[in-house]
C-alpha cells in the first residue's frame, strides 16, 4: 500500500487563498502562527501521520480490541507506543489554551492537522479528538477547581477523555436518559446507570480516563431539560493529584463493529459495584444544564467528524490513484495502445477526478469554516465576528452531514477503482469504506443534522442567515462573471444558487402549515446546501488560481489543474443541486400521503 | 432479525400488470406456466428462501469458508444440507430445458424466484446461479456428446459449475489471458495456468465440479480473438459416467473478502501437478470462439447480478422497516407525542420510502426485461421478438450496472435507518451492505457496463434502438397525461425523457471526434438511462394501479399506495436524470483537459 503523503500543496493553497490564514494570524493571541510556523507544523504532522499513525492503521483493523476477563480493554499492537509519541509531541493540545498547557494555535491550523490524523488512522485519532472536545467543554462550563484538577492532563493527553450520552433506550433521543446522579454530603455525586457506544470508554493507553456523563439529578424535570453533566474519572485522585483508588465505573462489553476496529466501543456501567455506593462524580456547569455543555463538546466533535469525511476521502483517493497509476489493463480507447495503466481509461480518470474534486470541495469548506471559528472568537470587528458565528452555526450541520455523506461516497468509489482487488480485505482499501460508514451516524445522524439545519438554523430565524449566505454566493458568482475565462463556471454555479433559493423559499413558506413535508425534505436540503457550498468553494479555488496564474505566481500546471478541477466539480456535481431542490419541493407530498400501513 | 417475507403482492402485480405474464404463458412451450402454477412456485420459493436459505445467511457470513491443508474447501455449517434440499426440490433447473431434466419455465417466472434466493442468501445462491449460466452456455455451444455427458447433472445440481476468466494480469482485460491448452491425441486438451476470483472453485457440496475455462490454443491469435473455452472437471468420469480419477486442477488459495463470506472465492491452478501432464479438458464451441460462448454465460450472469441488486435491496428494506416499526425514539415532530416508533419521523419514512421505491423500480425493470427475454426467444411475431431482443441487448448493461449501484445504495440506507445499531455487526444489516459491495464489480464493473452501453449498444448502431425506446417512453408519458390524476407525474417523467434525449444527441454527435469525452460520461449516462427506465416502470405501475382502482379490482389502500410510490420516485429520483444528462455533456471537457500529472 502506498504511504500517505500529506496533501500539503492543496492544504496551503486553501489556507492562504480561501480560508484567511493571514488574517487569522493577525488576530490577537495568534501572532505566533506565522506562515513559517504553520508550514513547519503541517510538515511535522504530515511526517507523524505518515510515519507513525498510517503504518498501524491496517493492523488496528485486523486485530481490533478485546475485553479481558478482568475487565481490561486491550487495544491493538502499536497503539500505546503511538499514543505516547503523540502526547510527547504535544499534538493533543495544539489548539487548546496555553494556560492549561496547550499551544493555543488557531482552529485554522489545527484543522488540516486533524485531517491528517483521520486520513491515516481514524480509529486512533478518535482518542485525542475526545480530549479536545472534553477540554473545550470543561473550559467553558467547569468550575475553576475542576479545571485546575483535570484540564492540564486532559490537554496534555496524559489522561484520556470520553463523552457518555447514549443509553440503550436513548440514542438520538437524549430525553429518554435514565442514568441518575445522587448528591453526596461533600458536594460530589454518586452516579448509577449504563451507557452504550462509548468510544475509548476503557483502555490502558493513559493512566486515567476522564468521563463526562449525562445523568439526572433527583427531582430533575423530565426530558432534556433535566439532564446534568458530571465528570467521573476512572481512578479517583490521591492527595498528590495522581490516580489512586478505582472508581465504581467499568466496561462490561465492547462492540463488534463494521469498522474502526482499533477504537474500542464500550458499554460502561456506573455504580454497579453494590457496596461501593455509586460512581463518584462532580457536576460540570449548572444543574439541569448538562445538554448545553455537552453540546459544546458535541459541536466540536461534529466539526471533527466532518473533517473525518475529508481525511478518509483524501487517503482513499491517494490509494486509488496509486493503484490506477500502476495497474496495467486494457487498451487505450482512442489509440488502441496496450500496456497503459488504468488511469488512462476515461471512466477511471472520472472516478479519480470526482474523488479529488469532492475532497477539495470538502476541505475548502471545512478550512474556511475553521477560519470563521477563529474570527468569531477573536476578531476585533464585532460585526464581522458575529457574521462568522452566524455562518458557523448555520453551516455546522452541513459541515458534518454533507462532508460525511460525501466522504463515504469517495471511499466507496476508491473500492470501485480497485475493482475485484478492492473487495479483497488484504488490499486495505475496504477498511476505509468500513471505517467511513460510521461517520454519517455518530455525533448525530445525517437526518439529525438536517433537522437541525431546517429547524433551528433556518426556520427559527426565518432564513435570515441563509439569505445572507445566498447574497455572498451571488457575489462570488458575479466575480466569476468578471473573469472572461470563468464565465461558464459562473452559469453553472448560479444554477445551484437558484436551486437553493427556490428550496429555501418553499421551506420558509411551508415551515408552519406543512412542517412534516418540510422535514421530509430536510436531508435533500442539506445535500443541496452542501453541494452548493462545495461549488462556492471550488469557484473560489478557480478564482484564486486564476489570480495567481495572472500574477505569474506558483506552478502554472498545478494552478491550471485547479481551474479544471473546479469546472469538473461544477459540471459533475453542481446539477445535482437542482435535483435536490426539486426533491425538497415535490417529494414531501406523496411521502406524507403514502399510508405507512402499506409499506 | 425479522424473517424474510417474499414480497409476493408486489411481485405478482408486476408480473401481471407490467411484465406480460399472460402473454408469456400463452407462448408455445410455456403453456404450463398458468397463473396457478406461477403462484404455487412463488409461494414455495418464498417458503424455501425464508425457511432454509435465510436462517443460515448470517452464519455463513460469520463462519466464512476455509481452505484445509489438504486442499479441501470447507463451506459454512448448513450449506451442504441447504444445497441438498435445493437440489432435491429441483430449483436449479427451474428455467432450464425439460430435455436435460429442467422444468422449462419462462425466465419471467424464474426471475422472482432468483430475487428471493439473492435476498435471503446471496453467498449461497451464487452456486446455483453458476449452474444455470453454465448450462445456458453448454446448450448453445457444446457438442452433443459433451451435452449428454455433463448437462443433466449440471441442470440437476448434482454437480457444481464455475466460470474461469480472470487471471492476475487479466481482469477486465481478457485479452491478457495466459492459460494455455495443449491438444492431446484423443481429441481432448491439457490445460496449464492459474485463474483467480473463481467463485465456488472448490467445495464439497457436490460430487463433482464442472469448470469452464478460458485458455489459449497453441498458435492462437493474440488478444481476445485467441481465446477458446474448455470444460475441465474436478473429477474425470469413469466408464459409468461417475466421478472417478481426480483431474489435475486444485484450489491453492481462497480470498478473505469484504462480503459474501459464505461463497468461497478460489485461486485455481490447472496442470501444476508435474507428472500428471496438465488438466484434462474438452473444447466447448469452436477454437478461438471462447469469448463468444463465455459471453452467453456472462450475459446470463449479468442479468442475475442485476437481480441481486433488487434482492439485496428488498431484504435490507424489510429489515430496516422492521426496525423502524419497533424502535421507539424521540417525539412526533408535529404533535410532540412521545412513544412513537421511528417510522413516524419524516426522514426515516423518507429513507424507507426511497428504498421501497427504488426496489420496486428495479424489480419492475428486471421482470419486464425477463419478459422481453422470453418474447425474444419464443414469440411467434418475429418483429416483436426482434424488438424484444433489441431491448434486452440495449438495456442489459443498465439492468446490471444501474440495479447494482442502486441496490448498494439501498443497503447502505438500511444501515442508516438502524443508526448506531447498524454499525454493530451482530445486528446483521451491515452484512447486506458488505455483500452488496461486490455487485458493481463482478461480471463487469459499472464502468465496463457503461462502456458497453455507449460503445456497442448505442454508437455502433447510431442510437437506433435507443430512439425506439425513447419513443416508447414518450408513449407512456402521453398515456399518463390522459389520466387526469396522473398529469403531474407525466410532467416529471417527461423531464427525464428529455434529459435522455439531450444526452443521447450529444453522445451521437460527439462519438467520433470526442470519443474520450463521451466515454468519460458513460457512467453518468448509464445512471441517466437507469433512472429514466425506473421512472418509466414506476409510471407504468401508477397507470396499472389506477386502472385497477377504477375497475374496483384489488385492495384500494395498496393500489393507492402504489400511485404515491410512483409519485415519490419521480419527484425524488426523476430530477437526477437532468443532473446526469448535464454531467454527460459538460464534465468530459474539463476531465480531458485536466492534466493527469497534476493529480
From TrEMBL, chains A, B:
Catalytic activity, as annotated: 3-(methylsulfanyl)propanoyl-CoA + oxidized [electron-transfer flavoprotein] + H(+) = 3-(methylsulfanyl)acryloyl-CoA + reduced [electron-transfer flavoprotein]
Q: Where is the Acyl-CoA dehydrogenase/oxidase C-terminal domain?
A: 288-453
Signal peptide position in this chain?
none
Mention one GO molecular function.
flavin adenine dinucleotide binding
The prosthetic group or cofactor this protein requires is: FAD
Q: Which Pfam families match?
A: Acyl-CoA_dh_1, Acyl-CoA_dh_C, Acyl-CoA_dh_M, Acyl-CoA_dh_N
Name the domain of life.
Answer: Bacteria
Q: Where is the Acetyl-CoA dehydrogenase-like C-terminal domain?
A: 470-592
Q: Which UniProt keywords apply?
A: FAD, Flavoprotein, Oxidoreductase
Q: Which residues form the Acyl-CoA oxidase/dehydrogenase middle domain?
A: 163-270
**Per the UniProt record, which EC number(s) apply here?**
1.3.99.41
Where the record annotates domain Acyl-CoA dehydrogenase/oxidase N-terminal, the positions are 40-158
Regarding protein family, the annotation reads: Belongs to the acyl-CoA dehydrogenase family.
Write out the function statement from the record: Involved in the assimilation of dimethylsulphoniopropionate (DMSP), an important compound in the fixation of carbon in marine phytoplankton, by mediating the conversion of 3-(methylthio)propanoyl-CoA (MMPA-CoA) to 3-(methylthio)acryloyl-CoA (MTA-CoA).
Q: Could you tell me what this protein is called? A: 3-methylmercaptopropionyl-CoA dehydrogenase
Organism of derivation = Aromatoleum aromaticum (strain DSM 19018 / LMG 30748 / EbN1) (Azoarcus sp. (strain EbN1))
